[in-house]
Design brief:
This is NTF2 fold immunity protein domain-containing protein. By secondary structure, this protein is of the alpha+beta class. The protein has a single domain, classed as Roll (Nuclear Transport Factor 2, Chain: A). The chain is built from 3 helices and 5 strands; from the N terminus they run H-H-H-E-E-E-E-E. Helix 2 packs antiparallel against helix 3. The protein is globular. The two termini are about 20 Å apart. The mean pLDDT is about 80.
Length: about 120
């Protein structure tokens, strides 16, 4: 499953989050439009062409970072995979995420990223 680890490392949501958040101060009148456009561009790199995502959300710190996420499990059945990670925060809330992927046309695509909380899955992609 090293291909999934490589894929997760390449998913650069943290950079998008930081750039989107920095636009708040530098372009306060247009930052949501610019962040939305950048988010849609990012999604086209990692999701299937017909994917429709959730509304964008970002903050002062991304909750997705390959350097701070520990892979808890990888479940792979045929062309479907679920990678469960935990974002490690030393003295705070450490959310668990499930990355749902599909292998199609020779590569992995995200179908959703869920926040797993108290037995419920909340879409976040």
């Amino acid at each position: 499953m090293s291909h999934l680890k490589f894929w997760l490392d390449s998913f650069n949501r943290i950079t998008w989050n930081d750039q989107a958040f920095s636009l708040r101060d530098s372009k306060p009148n247009e930052y949501m439009d610019l962040a939305g456009k950048a988010w849609r561009t990012l999604l086209t790199k990692y999701t299937l062409p017909d994917f429709v995502g959730e509304p964008i959300a970002f903050g002062s710190e991304s909750s997705h970072d390959p350097n701070k996420e520990k892979i808890l499990s990888v479940k792979n059945t045929n062309n479907i995979a679920v990678v469960t990670t935990q974002y490690l925060v030393p003295d705070g809330y450490s959310p668990i995420h499930e990355y749902h992927l599909i292998f199609q046309d020779g590569r992995w695509y995200l179908t959703q990223v869920y926040l797993a909380d108290e037995g419920q899955l909340y879409p976040g992609l």
